UniProtKB/TrEMBL annotation:
<keyword id="KW-0630">Potassium</keyword>
<feature type="binding site">
    <location>
        <position position="97"/>
    </location>
    <ligand>
        <name>substrate</name>
    </ligand>
</feature>
<feature type="binding site">
    <location>
        <position position="134"/>
    </location>
    <ligand>
        <name>ATP</name>
    </ligand>
</feature>
<feature type="active site" description="Proton acceptor">
    <location>
        <position position="106"/>
    </location>
</feature>
<dbReference type="InterPro" id="IPR004619">
    <property type="entry name" value="Type_III_PanK"/>
</dbReference>
<dbReference type="GO" id="GO:0004594">
    <property type="term" value="F:pantothenate kinase activity"/>
</dbReference>
<feature type="binding site">
    <location>
        <begin position="104"/>
        <end position="107"/>
    </location>
    <ligand>
        <name>substrate</name>
    </ligand>
</feature>
<feature type="binding site">
    <location>
        <begin position="7"/>
        <end position="14"/>
    </location>
    <ligand>
        <name>ATP</name>
    </ligand>
</feature>
<comment type="function">
    <text>Catalyzes the phosphorylation of pantothenate (Pan), the first step in CoA biosynthesis.</text>
</comment>
<keyword id="KW-0808">Transferase</keyword>
<dbReference type="Pfam" id="PF03309">
    <property type="entry name" value="Pan_kinase"/>
</dbReference>
<protein>
    <recommendedName>
        <fullName>Type III pantothenate kinase</fullName>
        <ecNumber>2.7.1.33</ecNumber>
    </recommendedName>
</protein>
<keyword id="KW-0067">ATP-binding</keyword>
<comment type="similarity">
    <text>Belongs to the type III pantothenate kinase family.</text>
</comment>
<keyword id="KW-0173">Coenzyme A biosynthesis</keyword>
<comment type="pathway">
    <text>Cofactor biosynthesis; coenzyme A biosynthesis; CoA from (R)-pantothenate: step 1/5.</text>
</comment>
<dbReference type="InterPro" id="IPR043129">
    <property type="entry name" value="ATPase_NBD"/>
</dbReference>
Length: 256
């Protein structure tokens, strides 16, 4: 029984088993696994779960990872995999990308999750939706639910590796975020953190000017908590934003 939501990123597979395919459904079990270890899911984390009635997921990893997940679902439960492909419109959100299907599925699902989370607390308003992971995305949604566009920039790890590979002798441990760094480790960590914070702040300014009102800002992703102390704009940190979006999409797709 129940519904299995899966989010396959560039580094980890995250999953959540719910009692039903609808927002607010009881969470029965959840977990995360690095992609190199997903072969073990059927005999470990998923072994004791009851068979879900349906599965819906979003994936940005390579086709080989997709096939492995689909094989795991078929092997354990004979469950067909269903993946979100961004469309021109879904679940109240309009896709303003030049080529809608080329938008990252995780970006699309997170925006849908943020849109419905915001609607649950008040009237529609513009949004800025930030995901901080291997890469960082910063999305803008107007008060009608139209995705206006977004930024993509490297996450902390990619920034550091790029500097190490392109700068002779620059191999230092991760430091702390400081207003005025006085060593190379802190300088690198602070530079990456404030670069991400600056992109978010610039998008908030763009949305404020374009929409004429203050946007609500949501942040999610495995490294979102690292950004929290360094943000100058008000935001809500929501670990489950992609799962929120998958539940909303599932409710509308699977309703009787």
């Amino acid at each position: 029984m129940g519904f299995l939501a899966i989010d396959v990123g560039n580094t980890r597979l995250k999953w959540a088993h719910y009692a039903a395919a609808e927002p607010g459904a009881k969470l029965l079990a959840h977990g995360a696994e690095f992609l190199e270890n997903i072969d073990h899911l059927p005999e470990r984390e998923w072994a004791g779960l009851p068979r879900p009635d349906r599965m819906l997921g979003c994936i940005v990893a390579a086709d080989a990872v997709r096939r492995r997940v689909e094989e795991d679902l078929a092997e354990l439960w004979d469950l067909p995999a269903q993946w979100v492909v961004p469309a021109a419109f879904e679940a109240g959100v309009t896709n303003g990308y030049d080529h809608p299907a080329r938008l990252g599925a995780d970006r699309w699902v997170a925006m849908i999750g943020a849109w419905h989370r915001a609607l649950a607390t008040g009237p529609a308003r513009p949004l800025v939706v930030v995901m901080v992971g291997t890469a960082v995305t910063v999305e803008a949604v107007d008060a009608s639910g139209r995705f206006l566009g977004g930024f993509i920039l490297p996450g902390h790890g990619i920034m550091l590796r790029a500097l190490e590979s392109g700068t002779a002798g620059l191999h230092v441990p991760t430091g702390e975020v400081r207003e005025f760094p006085t060593n190379t480790s802190d300088a690198l960590t602070s530079g990456g953190t404030y670069a991400i914070a600056g992109a978010v702040e610039r998008m908030v300014q763009h949305v404020r000017q374009h929409c004429g009102t203050e946007p609500a800002c949501f942040m999610t992703g495995g490294a979102g908590w690292k950004m929290a102390p360094s943000m100058s704009v008000k935001f809500e940190l929501v670990d489950s934003l992609i799962f929120d979006g998958l539940l909303e999409i599932a409710r509308q797709r699977f309703r009787p």
